[in-house]
Amino acid sequence: MYDIHNNHLNNIGMYLTKEVKEEIFAKHGEKTNTGKAEAQIALFTFRISHLTEHLKKNRHDYNTERSLVLLVGKRRSLLDYLKKTEINRYREIIKELNIRK
Fold it and tell me: How many CB atoms lie within 10 A of CB 46?
C-alpha cells in the first residue's frame, strides 16, 4: 500500500516515484489507461495528502499552499464529473479513498 509516511520514500527525496504511480494506477485504474477518472483522483489524493503534511511543518510556504488548492479543485472537478455520469463509480472511489463529500 502506498503511504506518504514510508521511510524509504522520505529518504529518496522524491515522494512520487515511478513505482508509487504504477501501484496507484494498478489499484485504481488500468495499467495502460492512466487517464481513468478513478486513477487520477487517487493520484491527486496521494499528492494532496503529501502537500498537507508538508504544509503542517511549513506554514508559510504559500506556493505549496496554492498548489494544494489547485489540486483540490482538479480532484473536485473529476469527482463532480463521476457523480454526474456514473454515480456508482463515484460512490466506490469516495468510500475507497475515504474522501469527504
Answer: 20
CATH for 7-97 (1.10.287.10, 3.10.450.50, 3.20.20.370, 3.40.605.10):
1.10.287.10
Chain centre distance of CA 30: 16
CA distance readout (Å), 68 to 27, 36, 50, 74: 23, 21, 10, 10
Q: Which residues contact 46 (CB under 8 A, 6 or more apart)?
A: 2, 4, 16, 20, 24
Question: pTM here?
Answer: 0.81
The three cell numbers locating residue 69:
488548492
Question: What does residue 99 show for φ and ψ, rounded to 5 degrees?
Answer: -100, 140
pLDDT digit string, tens, across residues 17-48: 888 888 888 888 777 777 889 999 999 999 99
